[in-house]
Amino acid sequence: MDVRPEDRLIMKKNHPCGGNEMYVIRSGMDFRLRCVKCSHEFMVPRKKIEKNIKKIIRDGEQ
Predict the structure, then answer these.
(1) Residue 8: in which H helix or E strand, if any?
(2) Spans of all domains in the chain
(3) Disulfide-capable partner of 38 in 7, 17, 25, 58 (CB 3.0 to 4.6 Å)?
(4) What's the whole-model pTM score?
(5) Rounded to whole angstroms, how far apart are CA atoms 46 and 59?
(6) Are strands 41-45 and 30-35 parallel, antiparallel or unpaired?
(7) Tens digits of per-residue pLDDT, 2-61?
(8) Residues paired with residue 26 on neighbouring β-strands, in sequence order
């Protein structure tokens, strides 16, 4: 999957705060994500994130 820093991810499952949109800070073997709703930052392995992505939103694309 082509996930880049500064992308926004719509996830299948919600974050505990209730939001399902995540901002990508860093990508590699692990992703560093920030919840758009509560601004909590966390790291998650690539394999776990890739299976839970519903949609990728990039700036400049619809």
Answers:
(1) strand 8-11
(2) 8-57
(3) 17
(4) 0.87
(5) 22
(6) antiparallel
(7) 899 999 999 999 999 999 999 999 999 999 999 999 999 999 999 999 999 999 999 866
(8) 32
